[in-house]
Each structure stands twice: as C-alpha cells, then as structure tokens.
Amino acid sequence: MTDAESTDLALPTLGYGAANVGNLFRSLTDDEAWAVLEAAWDAGIRYFDTAPHYGLGLSEKRLGAFLQTKPRDEFVVSTKAGRLLRPNPEHQSGGLDTDNDFHVPDDLRREWDFTEAGIRASIAESQERLGLDRIDLLYLHDPERHDLDLALAEAFPALEKVRGEGAVTAIGIGSMVSDALTRAVREADLDIIMVAGRYTLLEQPAAAEVLPACDERGTGIVAASVFNSGLLAKSEPTRDGRYEYGQLPEQLWDRLVRIADICKDHGVPLPAAAIQFPLQADAVRSVVVGGSRPAQLAQNAEYAALPIPAELWQNLAAEGLIPA
What we know:
oxidoreductase activity, NAD(P)_OxRdtase_dom_sf, AKR, Aldo/keto reductase, 10 helices, alpha/beta
C-alpha cells in the first residue's frame, strides 16, 4: 500500500479549503479573496485545497495567483479531478452558477470524465489555472454523483498511473458519502482521502467503516466540513442553523446542545473542539476549514492551537457523543 510517508507528502494539521475564494455563497472581489488567503498564510496555514468545481475555476486561479508569490517548497496544494470545465452553450449574459451556490458567470459547465485522457486533461488544466508546475495531492471529486463503478474501473487506475509517473505526488477521493469512501479505500490504491462532513464532533458515520478501512490499508484522512454547515462554528449554536441542504433535524439539535454544554463545562470553545476532534483519530492527518473573511482564518488557527484537556474527549465519549 502506498501511503503519505512513502510518497514524501507531509500534510500540515490545518488546511484552508478554498471554495470561498471561488465565490461560494457570496461574491468576493479579487482583493477580498487575496486578503483571505493572506490571512491564512499569516496564521501559519500551509495546506490549501481547491477544485475546478469551486467557482468554475475561479478558486484555482485566485489561489494559484497567491501561491505563486510564495516559495513552492513551503506549501502543499490539493485539487480535484473528475469534472472538466467546458464552454456552456446555454450561457446567457448575466447568468450565474448559483444553482451550485457559486456567484460566478455560468459561461462554463462541468462535464464528467473518468477516462485516463480526461484525468490527464484535468491535471493539465488545473496546473494552468493554478500556475504551478506540480500538484501535490489529487482527489477524485464526488465520483458517486456520477458513477462510482465507472470510477473504480477507469478513474482510479488512471490516478494510480499518473502518480506512478510523478505527475502528482499522492492521490485519493473527496466525498461526503461514507459508502463511496469505503469502497474507494478498499478497491483502489489511495494515499489520502477527504472525508467531508462525515467525521465531525456532531456526527461520525465514517467511524463505522471508513476509518477502519483506512487503518487497514494505511490510508490517511483529511477531515473537511468539520463545522457541519456552520453549526459548530460558534460556541452558542442557534436552532435556525443550516444543516447541509435543509433544516437541522431535532435529534441532531439535541445532540448539538449536549455537546456545546459539555464544551462549556470544560471552558473549551465549541469551534476549537470541532477543529481538533477529528485529529484524535490516528488516520486523520489534517483538518481543512473554509472561511470568507480574514478574521475567520486567524480565529480558526487559534482554535486549532488551543490546548484542550483530555477530560473533554473522555466526557463526550462517556456520554456516547463521540466514539470511545
């Protein structure tokens, strides 16, 4: 099994997920996006994750422009493959990609392509948008939304091939579906996977099969969406918080309140516990957080470094809120 150590890829424990600089949920100017990235760098963040999907390439372009001003050996960058960006014949003047929550012109569209040629094209086009000569880590992005069987038959072997050629240092899958993550770990030769929203302080469905599969295969994990759509981003959660694509279920709200109360009893800000919780698992090597304002990046870095007493985790486990 190839792992991050054998591919010489060391991931910092805190990363920045650059969907926001692709105008996720709201539009940022180039200067505003630059200020966010600069705040991340100033806070010590040296792992940056992006994707063609984020803002139809805008995230890669903005991130790349920023990283080109930094020494290449001082940061790690990951992007994703599986969707190619191609001209959108249905684009009309003023049309935006808001169906995908990105406030950018929809003059491009995403086209699934799991072929080896498609994977190679995706790498080349991402490198061009980033302006970087190499990509450290390449994830196959949400393959279950298209055809997971096809991904296992074509895309992952292609990823393994380009890794073997040195085109990328490490490969993996990025997904929020536990079954897809588990199958990919067991059936492909992956270095690192990105688990989005499925191993968080609030809920841990990935603990059942994804983490054991990674432990067996020596596969590393990057935990993303650890604030559960913002529910864990404040020490005092609110009932009207958004949960993925809808309202927060009552059972999860009750669980959230119990977790927040225990954190308060230990004097630990809820967001700090949310960032540090996934790192308690041996397989988790990094936590990636987003943010669209410079102050958020500085605050998240402080939360990531905040000492947390072991008793907090023990108390949460005793209450059945996190795995023992």
